[in-house]
Amino acid sequence: MGRMRGIEERPAGLHHQPELLDTAAEQALLARIRPLTFDEVRMHGQVARRTVRHYGMGYEFSSGAVTPGEPIPDWLLAVRAASATLAGLAAEDLVEVLVTRYPPGAGIGWHRDAPAFGDVVGVSLASSCALRFQRGTGDERRVFELLAAPRSAYVLTGPARTTWQHSIPAVAEERYSITFRTVRRHCTAHTAAHAPGVTPAHAPGVTPG
């Protein structure tokens, strides 16, 4: 894996926890995740190697639409609570969950998470990957890389979420990730309030009374 060209700089708003989970918790999650039915990721007519399963809120990759999704299952609640604590959020704020399977050779190119979503917490399972960051171009390009080892987690807020892009080079071994996200206020309260597993009091765009 080649070194990225640019000036190394850690993104403001990036937080990393090497051991969010213990081995037993990781294995319990993998026992639930591996039998899941995953959906393809299709963008601009191309099908990615990685596959996904959405909970809480649905997301259409081709259109960017956020829709009601299936309820967040009970077996994800403990890791969601731990992820929320790491990010300084209430567990109920993390209304969208994306479970991703990366078979060997799969990765994800440079991107920012969809603008409908806010803060991001990612949990790495089964094997390691490089998590790369970049902003700017040419002589102004800034880069950073961290190792997302199994059971570790990262948080993207502020500039790390909105200014920097991130990517994952092709993985050598099968890897899974669980990504928790808040939803921005411009996602309508109607959509959030009617999403299974999201109560109106905690729906994005609705201030609890």
Structural features, described:
The protein is of the alpha+beta class and 209 residues long. 15% of the residues lie in helices and 37% in strands. The protein is built from 4 helices and 14 strands. The strands form 3 sheets. A 7-stranded antiparallel β-sheet has the order 2-12-9-14-7-4-3. The longest helix is centred in the first third of the chain and has 11 residues, at 23-33. The radius of gyration is 17 Å and the shape is globular. The termini are far apart. The model is unreliable at 188-209 (pLDDT under 50).
What features would you highlight for this structure?
disordered C terminus, 5-stranded mixed beta sheet, alpha+beta, globular, 209 residues, 4 helices, 7-stranded antiparallel beta sheet
